[in-house]
Amino acid sequence: MVIEPNSSARPPIGAILTRPKPPFSHSGFFMGQDTVFENVPGGARFSTWAEFSKGHPVTTEQMLLLSYSELWRRAHAVVAAKREYGPLDFNCDDAVNLVAGARVRPSQIVGAFFVGLLAFGAARLLTMTSRQ
User: Is position 62 within any domain?
Assistant: First the structure.
């Protein structure tokens, strides 16, 4: 489900959300009413729908299968831990996975690193074989 910027529609509580954040996407999950859990530089936090979407369409990817009280308990624990945001070691996907208790979002940055590494290796191999 895609929710356009000016829409008043909201997904079900516990829905995992993504929005564009070039060159990747930003993820969080819907806590109900106008509240979204997200992890940004500065740490995990509860933000408004507008703060999360930043004027972009928001896509609902899947649902966390947690009770409402468990979802809030886990999200509050992550926020209270004040763990520092890190693009490689604790990004938005990592925070969503931590609250979910499972890997529900692959880490885009780590994936991009490995794709880049593979591309570099392939280019290097082609260069080496073309010289022979």
Answer: yes
